[in-house]
Design brief:
By secondary structure, this protein is of the alpha/beta class. It has 13 helices and 12 strands. Helix content is 36%, strand content 14%. The strands form 2 sheets. Strands 1-2-3-4-11-12 form a 6-stranded mixed beta sheet. Helix 4 (85-92) crosses helix 11, helix 5 crosses helix 11 (263-273) and helix 5 runs parallel beside helix 12 (288-302).
């Protein structure tokens, strides 16, 4: 059985299911302390290691048990400084059957209006007729530094969104953890911005914002990947897992190990080959399609319109 690097990891519901690809592994969490400890222990004990991260369809409630986890034998998907199974899976490409499945999964994701977290309602306010979406992140997020970015990258992102879209409003999406967990962001939004900038200071779901955006500007946020699932133009100011493959407009050069990749290869790696899904209630294995359907149905129940249901 696996050995968890700390008690919090050991307490993850259905951990044995998520880590079944390496049943003798030492298991840690990403590039955090437990991940580093897992790698050291694995070398010392002569065993494999697995580095875990939340899947891109994590849960319905923000703090619900995860229904998906990424388990990587080599590295971490958001670390552009080192190789990972995730990067290798994208580079390997897909066959015809896998490509068709990836396209169907992207369509199911769009139609189901799902996201990584699914607890928040859709943004209910009025949206401009023409806008680009700028995505802030939580300050100190490891994906920023390991995505070859820093605080200057966020300022450059906002400046570029304004300069490159003179006929559009610029909407800045604040990370939900700023509201739910008291964290800070990278953009200094206390400084007066240009008149065309509107800060979305609410914990809201991403689907509607992405659907109507002309383009999405990001540093390393997962929302850039969700924008690609909706075939939106994405401009990157860091090096997230979905950049450096010719699918985004990148401010930085691609790391060694990346090159041209098909959209389907990216989607298949992210939602199929590098991610494990379980029923959070029973621990039964799920396919990606089952997990997306589960979350989409849960959101429909959670945010059902009582008047519409009564009609």
């Amino acid at each position: 059985m696996v050995i968890a690097a700390n008690r919090r990891i050991a307490a993850i519901a259905h951990l044995d299911r998520f880590t079944a690809i390496e049943p003798r592994a030492i298991v840690g969490w990403g590039r955090k302390r437990s991940g580093r400890r897992a790698e050291r222990l694995a070398r010392w004990l002569g065993r494999p290691f697995l580095l875990l991260e939340d899947g891109f369809l994590r849960s319905v409630g923000r703090d619900d048990p995860p229904l998906s986890l990424i388990a990587d034998r080599t590295g971490v998907y958001y670390d552009a400084t080192r190789p990972s199974d995730f990067e290798a899976a994208i580079a390997a490409g897909v066959d015809g059957t896998q490509a068709a499945r990836a396209r169907a999964l992207a369509a199911q994701w769009r139609d189901g209006r799902v996201s990584k977290y699914n607890h928040a309602p859709e943004f209910a306010g009025n949206l401009p007729a023409r806008y680009v979406l700028v995505v802030d992140q939580t300050f100190g997020d490891l994906s920023v530094g390991l995505g070859l970015a820093d605080v200057a990258s966020f300022r450059a992102m906002l400046d570029a969104a304004l300069a490159e879209n003179p006929d559009c409003e610029v909407l800045v999406k604040v990370h939900p953890d700023v509201f739910t967990r008291g964290k800070g962001g990278w953009l200094d939004l206390t400084v007066p911005q240009a008149r065309r900038v509107t800060v979305l200071a609410a914990d809201c779901h991403a689907a509607r914002l992405l659907e109507q955006a002309r383009a999405v500007y990001t540093v390393t946020s997962l929302m850039g990947f969700e924008a690609l699932l909706r075939h939106k133009p994405v401009r990157c100011f860091g090096m997230p897992f979905y950049a450096g493959w010719g699918l985004t407009t990148d401010e930085l050069p691609a790391p060694v190990g990346r090159g041209r990749a098909a959209f389907e290869a990216l989607v298949h790696a992210a939602l199929v080959s590098c991610c494990r899904y379980v029923d959070p209630a029973t621990g039964a294995y799920w396919q990606a399609e089952q997990a997306i359907a589960h979350v989409a149905a849960a959101r429909r129940r959670l945010f059902a319109d009582p008047e519409q249901d009564a009609a």
